[in-house]
């Protein structure tokens, strides 16, 4: 008899939940002292929504129902989040003795909930910049600003290419390129944040940036071949200046945020960015 009752209960549980037929599973119930405890699994509920559920009971195999039941505690009413859920019904306090062909039914709907905006602050690093900060504010949609640098803002009056030919023409001296080099990096961007899932945010933005690679050379007097000075030149083959664009994702675990993305300066210089930070 218990096997038959359980089967019928599960059948009507699923039929009565047309909206949740693909979201509620693993349903079962058990005696719980003078009460009945009902278990179910809620899945595929969007992160920005909750399930508004009410519990009903039938003593005639589902021909008619009593409810919504009010002497219930647990995960009933406004239910948020996916996972294992349970409800306790104080049957003796509400209807007294329970007899007949018992069928339980959950009825409800998915309600979209307005998301509360949160702040995010992240420390950013990349191959060309050792320091960067990103600040954003987002609910479902939001925005952010980011700055990055290696704290070197050097420039150079000359240019060169990978062959080492400088745009320097000395009248009384010549130059020799050595292995010394230095780099300057600056990027300032802003853009849009979008949250497609509970643990994932996507971002895309643009702004201004530059990445300069500078090579060094020493100058020598033609006649005496004595060293006369230094030259720095921007290697134009490995430098970029102009529009900086970026896109990537931010992965969230509770308040912790980890980001991975890619950016480009003028679509001639590309690099990967990583960041870690907190939501608050």
Strands, total number: 17
Q: Quickly count the helices.
A: 2
CATH class wording of the largest domain: Mainly Beta
Question: Stretches where pLDDT falls below 50 for ≥5 residues?
Answer: 1-22
Sheet with the most strands: spatial strand order: 8-9-10-12-13-15-16-17
- Indicate the proportion of strand residues: over 45%
* End-to-end gap: 54 Å
Range of helix content = under 10%
Task: Give the gist of this structure.
The chain has about 280 residues and is mostly beta strands. It has 2 helices and 17 strands.
Describe the overall structure.
With 280 residues, this protein is mostly beta strands. It folds into two domains: 2-112, Immunoglobulin-like (Sandwich); 118-279, Porin, CATH 2.40.160. Helix content is 6%, strand content 61%. The chain has two helices and 17 strands. The protein has helices at 2-15, 91-94; strands spanning 24-32, 35-42, 49-58, 72-74, 77-80, 83-89, 103-112, 118-126, 131-138, 141-149, 158-160, 173-197, 200-221, 227-235, 240-253, 256-265, 269-279. β12 (173-197) and β13 (200-221) form a beta hairpin. The longest helix has 14 residues, at 2-15. The protein is rod-shaped.
